[in-house]
Amino acid sequence: MERLAGRIILLWGWRRLAVAFVAGAFLTLTQAPYDFFAVGFISFPVLVWLLDGVTADGSRNVLKRLIPAFATGWWFGFGYFLAGLWWIGGAVLVEAESFAWALPFAVVGIPILMAFFYAVAATVARLFWTSGVTRLAALAFGFGLAEWLRTFMLTGFPWNPIGFAAMPTPLLMQSVAVVGVTGMNALVVFVFSAPALLVGQQRRSGIGLALAALLVAVHAIFGLIMLNTPLPGPSSEVAARIVQPSIDLSEKWDEGVRDRIFSTMLELSSRPVAEGTPKPQLILWPETSVPFLFTERPDALATIGEMLKPGQMLIAGVVREEKSSATTLYYNSVIAIDDNGEIVDAVDKVHLVPFGEYIPFSGLAKRFGIEQLVAGPMNFEPGSQRPAIVVPGGMAAVPFICYEIIFPDMVSSDAESAGLVLNVTNDAWFGDTPGPYQHFRQAQIRAVENGIPLLRAANNGISGVIDARGRVVDALALNVRDSIDTQVAVSPSQGALVPWRARIGLLLTAFFGLLAVTGFMQEKFRAN
Hints:
This protein is an alpha/beta fold. The chain has helices at 2-9, 14-27, 40-52, 62-85, 89-93, 96-99, 103-127, 134-150, 176-193, 205-227, 258-270, 299-307, 362-367, 408-414, 434-450, 498-527; strands spanning 236-244, 282-284, 313-323, 328-337, 343-348, 389-391, 395-401, 420-425, 454-458, 463-466, 472-476, 482-490. It has a 6-stranded mixed beta sheet. It starts with a helix and ends with a helix. The relative contact order is 0.13.
């Protein structure tokens, strides 16, 4: 290992950047569906050694001295995001005749932008770099900060955060309920970087290795305790059916097959339940599962009312239309329909997908001929709020549409007083790629963070039932046309740490920053 580290440290020019790229791409194996977390113990030590070897002429100004670290971090991030997000291009190819020109932007452009966050992480870390254990704290602080910024900058895109690498199973997910993803990001980078301490005579390397081992042990033991601690007795229950219709996207908005698609939804929803299973009170359809506007087909509501049994409610993903004398506005929404075929509630998607559901700076974009890429036949308006829907049994359920579920702070804030989280999506845009698995993992983590069970309906998968500990109670595989019947119980004392979790995560990140600054100042003092 000593020889390997030395060779990596001495790399320069394109070879240094190539190794950074490969290390970042390799790190993708820690994410779903691979979940090979041990890879982190290779990629991050390599990054540490690459940054150890970053030197520049001391006569240059500070910014110029940091350029090599910035470049190393950027190529590390570019490898990570390119290998982890290539499947986004599949959404463009669904309508390749119109949008094939956008494939390079979807596949390469997004990783290029995301890589700048990791460039910032490496640069911040290098500002407080030392020759000892505290450089790992500097790296943890840099990545913790960068991942936190990724949750809201450029509209936010916290997909595949580093912290998920330490949460491949429910056993290893429970810590996120205490420190949040922000805290996990910083902790994971510190632990994954620890093998770099095995090389050379470094100050306090034993303390660093012991701390990393302790964090791993606490992480696993805490998960074991939580999974073996029964959830409190339920305060309410609801029998639910999740429908996965697996509709081909090429047919989604085809007027000639809309009735057939609608009939498929009705048939899956009205199937008899298995013996001993309670009849569903709540039926959940995926995002934009109704293939027409109800304003154009009011008869469809009557048909749904005839399908629903007394006391049942359907929550369906739809395109909602609002007309005025001047304009027509469209919303990506979920609506609640009662057994009389009446719409009793509606919630609009608040956080829309840039270029998928709306065009940022649309006036300027239209001048260059840039149009909406993938989401549907119209541009959407964002909703202003996300009220809970009261489902049969009196339970408050909060719906999140598609990628809204990837934003931890938004989910925690909007679901704070809810008993159930609903996630409706259409991941068919991404085919049989890592994308749907990564999206499902996001839903698992949100359930654990908030201590709230989650029901997920996806057009072609992965639909499932996730309990408050992140365990998958039941699920449907990709491209299966079927439904899931389940009984969801909600306990009154879940989610007790929710108001504190974001602060704890930021405090942990700041703590690593303090360690880094302290170590840097001590090394400077000894050198003088």
